Every structure is written in structure tokens, then in C-alpha cells.
Amino acid sequence: MQRPSKDVTVAELAILEQLWEHEQATLKELSGWLYGSTSPSDIATVQKLVARLEAKECIIRDRDEWPHLFQAAIRREDLISKRLQATADELCDGTLNSLLTHLVKSATFDAKQRKRLRKLLDDLDSK
């Protein structure tokens, strides 16, 4: 039997983005924010997505409250790191260097963004 994927889907990411923004929420609140509706079918969709995220250990449920409250168990930065590493593993033999080099070369940075990037690199050198 195949294990469920640990990758976060686009629909699941939408749930996480709401939880990062609002810190915690009920199913009804998530449904309203995502779909502009709290119909039973919309709430059921959110409930299924939340169950998947719980199985992936990306969110936690407070069962002491009713209705249950949900909050993100993974930080946005950690999810970004995991996804970038997975992309590097798939496309760049696991090295982030190749991936980052490509991203920097292909992006158009304004002067302020280039300055921030240089500062970040300088700060990393001083550690």
C-alpha cells in the first residue's frame, strides 16, 4: 500500500495561508475565508483538506474547544525550505546551490532587492 504524499497541494496551501494569517480558525471560518460561503458542502471540503493536513502534521487541532480550532504546525519558512529542497533533489542532484544560482540569474531584481540580497550573503559570510 502506498503511503500518502507529504507534499502540500495547492488547496491545502490555501488553508495554511489562512492559518498563517489568522493564527487559528474553525472550519466555518476557513470555509468563509476561502469560498465566501459556509455551505455544508464547502465546510465538508475544508474538513477533508484539514484532515489531510493533520495527517501530514502540518496543522494541529484543539479538541478542547468547540467548534474545534485549527492552527498551523509548520511555519511558512519551513514549508518553503522543504519544497525548495525537494525541487533541488528532483532537478539539481540535491544541491540548493544550482537551484539558487538559477533563481538569481533568471530573476529581475531592482537595486533595493539586489542590495538586500548582497546584505544577506554578507551576513551569512560573517557567521
Task: List SSEs in N-to-C order.
Answer: HHHEEHHH
Biggest pleated sheet: 2 strands, antiparallel
The CATH topology of the largest domain turns out to be Arc Repressor Mutant, subunit A
Mean pLDDT: 90
Which outline best applies?
elongated
The percent of residues in helical segments reads 55-70%
Taken as a percent bin, the fraction of beta residues is 5-15%
C-alpha Rg, in Å? 19 Å
The quaternary state of the protein chains shown equals: single chain
Task: Give start-end ranges of low-pLDDT stretches.
Answer: none
Instruction: Just give the CATH class of the largest domain.
Output: Mainly Alpha
Query: How would you write the strand order of the largest sheet?
Result: 1-2
Number of domains as seen in the coordinates? 2
Give the strand tally. 2
Please provide a written account of the structure.
This protein is mainly alpha-helical. The protein has two domains: 10-72, Arc Repressor Mutant, subunit A (Orthogonal Bundle), CATH 1.10.10; 76-125, no CATH class. 63% of the residues lie in helices and 6% in strands. It contains six helices and two strands, in the order αααββααα. The protein has helices spanning 10-22, 27-35, 40-55, 76-91, 96-106, 111-125, and strands spanning 59-62, 69-72. Strands 1-2 form a two-stranded antiparallel sheet. Strand 1 and strand 2 form a beta hairpin. Helix 2 (27-35) packs across helix 3. It is elongated and about 50 Å long. The chain starts with 9 loop residues before the first helix and ends with a helix. The model has no long low-confidence stretch (mean pLDDT 90).
